[in-house]
Structures are given as C-alpha cells and as structure tokens.
What we know:
The structure holds 2 protein chains of 2 kinds.
Chain A: E1 5-10, H1 18-27, E2 34-39, H2 44-55, E3 58-64, E4 69-74
Parallel strand pairs in A: 1-2
Antiparallel strand pairs in A: 2-4, 3-4
Chain B: E1 2-7, H1 11-18, E2 25-31, E3 35-37, H2 42-48, E4 55-57, E5 67-70, E6 75-77, E7 82-84, E8 90-92, E9 95-98, E10 103-104, H3 112-119, H4 126-137, E11 142-148, H5 156-172, E12 176-177, E13 199-205, H6 215-227, E14 230-233, E15 238-242, E16 247-250, E17 255-257, E18 260-264, E19 267-268, E20 273-275, E21 301-303, H7 316-330, E22 341-348, E23 351-357, H8 370-388, H9 392-401, H10 404-411
Parallel strand pairs in B: 1-2, 1-9, 2-5, 6-20, 9-21, 11-13, 11-18, 12-13, 13-14
Antiparallel strand pairs in B: 3-4, 6-7, 7-8, 10-19, 15-16, 16-17, 22-23
Helix pairs in contact in B: 1-7, 2-4, 2-5, 3-4
Amino acid sequence: MDAGVKIIDSRGAACPGPITDLARAYRNSKVGDIFEMWATDKGVKADTQAWATKTGNEILESREDPDKIVIRIKINKR
Amino acid sequence: MKKVLIIGGGGGGLILANHLDTNEFDVTIVDKSDLHFYQPWFLYIAFKGSQRKISRPIGELVRPGVNFVKDEITEINLDERKAYGSRKVVYNYDYIAIATGTSPDPDSIPGLRQIYDEYGDYHSSVYNSQKLWSHVKNFKGGTIAIGQSSPTCKCPPSLLEGAFLLEERLRGMGMSVGTSDPVSPSNVNDPAKTGTKGKSRIVFFTPFPRAYSAEPMNRVVEPMVKERGIEVMPFFDVDTIDGQNKTINSLEGESLKYDLPIIVPPCKGPKIKFIPETVQDEDRFIKADKNHMKIPGYDDAFAIGDCNTLPTSKTGVTAHLEAMTVSELIQGKYSEFNGRINCPFDTAYGKATFVIADYNNPVVPYPPTATKHFMKMSMARIYWMTLMGTADPIFEQFFKFTTPEKLNKKYASVE
C-alpha cells in the first residue's frame, strides 16, 4: 500500500452509508490526497462516481475484491 | 464486587445499567445532567409546537441498586482505569462504558453559531426546538433552507422528517409550497390549503447524493418529496454561512439563499480528554469494534451509542441494542451486535415507515403506512419502559419478525 493514501473503511455501512465517510474525509483533505475507500454497500460505485463528478475529483480505480468494493479517489479540487 | 462505571444517562447508558445484575456488579451512572430527554420528540416541538413533557429525572429511571451521580467527567485514563469528575473526584472502575451521545458543534462552520443561536434547530434541545417553532409558526413566506450541515448527524431520517413536517405545517397555515400542485391527502379539495396565505419554498439540502441517503429508502420517499413540492439540493455539504446576505455556501461550490434557515449543526463526540488520546477520531468519536463495542486495546472499556465510530446510524435503537450486547459481555456471556437499525421515519400526514437494515443486509424499501405511524407515536409512551427493560419481550418479538433479510424478500423483490 502506498504511503499517503488515506483508507476510508466503510464496510458494513448501509445507512446513512459510505458517502458519510467520504464527505467527512473530503472536508479535511487537500489537493493531491488519495483516498482508498472500502465498502460493501452495492450502491457505492454509482454514488462515488456522482460525488466525484459533482466535486471535480477523480476516480482512479474501482474494483470488486472478493470481500469488498475498493475505490481509489484522487482529490483534484478542494 | 466489580465496579461498572457508565458515563452518560441517555438511552444506551440506562439500558446497560438496568440490564446488569446489581447483586454481582456495583453499577454507577455519571451524567452532567440529572434529566433524560426523549429526543425523537424534538421534531414535534419544532414543527407542531408540542408541549408534551419529554424529560424525566435519570435517578427515577434506574432500577434499585444502580447508583446515579450528577457530575461532569472531564478525563478518562483507560490505562489506569480512572475517570475524573469535577472538583477532582476520581471514579475507579473494573469496566467502563462511554455512552455520552454526541455534542452539537455550531462553531466548526463559519457563520453557523449566529444562525443556531437565533433560530435553534430540531435536534439538540427542547429550548432550541421551541425557538425554531416560534420562527416556523410566524413564517410569512419565502424560502426555507433546511438540512444537516455535515454528513455526521444523529438519526438520519430526522432530517427529511423535518422537511416533511414543515411542508405539512406550511400548507396547514394556508401557504403554497414550491411550484407543484398540492396533491397531499389533506390538501385535496381543501381551498384553505391552496396557498392563499403566501408562497413558500422548502429547499432540502443534503451532503448525500439524494433526498434520503440510503438508496432503497430513497426510492420510497423521493416521489413524496416531489409530490409535496420540496426541492432537493444533493451533494451540498455546508462550508460557510453568510448571515448578512442570507446565503449558505457548500464545499462543493454551490450557494443557497434563504429567508428562514433551519440548519442542524455538525455532531461531534464528547468533550472528554482520553488517555490514550488515540481512542478518539478527529471529530472526538470513540473508536470501538463494530460487533462488541470494545475500545481497541481494552477488554474492560466500551463505547456505546452515538458517541462511537460504528459504521451504523447514530440512533436510539442502535444504542439500545449495543447496550444489550455490552451487558451480556460484561456478565461473561457471548453476544454480538449485528448493526441492526430500526429508525422510525415520519413522512407526515399521519404516515410513517421504518429504516431497517443491518451490517449484512441493505436498507429495506419499506412503504409508509398509518400503522407504522401509530407505532412511532406509541414508542413515545413505551419508551420509558424500554429504558427499564420491562418492554424487552415486545422488542424481541418485533426484531424477530422484522429482520431486514425477511423484509427485503418481500419488499425489495417486488420492485
């Protein structure tokens, strides 16, 4: 795992859901930060994509591991 | 006799205390207030002007043998098993459970303190809810901006409940809401409710992608939001508030003009100094494992309810179920919290639903009914029994018959 990547572990969160943790992390972030989000909620892919489009940030990778969904996000705008 | 120290006399703290065998344990609750409040009722004070008495002395809500001390804990040393109160009082313990709930933090967002002091909210106290009611009942028209100022908030449904009850109230006052035709049940064929007393807009802002954060429940409530003329601004996380120009600005770069601001302040964890300080996150919430509520590294320390970092809703029912699990663990039995939530959700006009899910099952798209509204209202009566443990058989049956797994088979598959 690279240094400087902030892990956001939202596994198990169904309500209000993973966006809570992402939005919290965004508030304390700076340009250039990388978030790696772990979630089990199926809606997380579409939601983080919509969030990234809205906030002008970038999804670097979105994959499904056997035990979790992993999404890497680069903060371009703050 | 082993000493169990419980910090906080809210739902979690009382339910834990009342489920411990006082012949085996010396149980003490410490709280800075000597009153316990039924917080879900703040909503009805703020939007309906309810004058129901919603507090009782904590000392009257504990079973015989449980001690209650009114004191403010300022420091907890987990390594030395000591908690420090005011006037240098030291509390020793064998087990500790932190159950303080959250504290509102209007000072963390520029401009929010002034709004909070002037308008109140429907989340933090009876006083603030009464303050908001005085603005709602005298509202003469214009734009009401309503929502949560940060994603971490108590009771996820309550935010939208506020918007729904506000819409019902404004139409009841003879105002129009939004541009859509009022088609809510009570407005049909009612000339008094067609906007003769002024025009209003309700703008519900939310840091989430949609009106209700969990998508399956959003499918249920979004049509109601639209039908009632409530506008939604998604991905709107409050950054600053400009009180002079009556504008809320979001982290995402949008602005919202208001005439009446109803802004629920961010929630933070307790203002207690912990040793080691690493047990709290950046918002002071206390780290705990999601099945046993144990503070990492400690077998004798738990954090239950709203004050912990569990990936579940901050709501009364989770505090209740977490407290039940912790009481079993302290008494040497095996128990696990499965993340179950069961949040009552008033959709106004006499109907309600419940937001039901757990760690392994998504939220159920559970339709609102009058029966569920009756259940929500009944809860206000049996609440005091749940704290004492005397309503446990009712809850056991209810939870058994309403598991998210069962309900999803019925409701999620028919869509």
